């Protein structure tokens, strides 16, 4: 299955979160955070039936005047 990941930097850590399910992980690099997220997703779905389809998402930026 393919998931959408959002990676942000929080302090000294990179945090990777999926958009489709509420799973997150972290790492010292972006690559490590994504690898840890992949492992977390595999463990989350281990022994569970996979969903038939995940919802489609539109990822967009929004600009506001502050």
UniProtKB/TrEMBL annotation:
<dbReference type="InterPro" id="IPR051404">
    <property type="entry name" value="TA_system_antitoxin"/>
</dbReference>
<dbReference type="Pfam" id="PF24113">
    <property type="entry name" value="DUF7387"/>
</dbReference>
<dbReference type="InterPro" id="IPR035069">
    <property type="entry name" value="TTHA1013/TTHA0281-like"/>
</dbReference>
<dbReference type="InterPro" id="IPR055811">
    <property type="entry name" value="DUF7387"/>
</dbReference>
<protein>
    <recommendedName>
        <fullName>HicB-like antitoxin of toxin-antitoxin system domain-containing protein</fullName>
    </recommendedName>
</protein>
């Amino acid at each position: 299955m393919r998931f959408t990941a959002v990676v942000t930097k929080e302090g000294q850590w990179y945090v990777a979160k999926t958009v489709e399910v509420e799973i997150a992980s972290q790492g010292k690099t972006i690559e490590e955070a994504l690898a840890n997220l992949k492992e977390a997703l595999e463990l989350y779905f281990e022994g569970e039936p996979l969903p038939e389809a995940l919802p489609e998402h539109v990822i967009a930026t929004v600009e506001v005047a502050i």
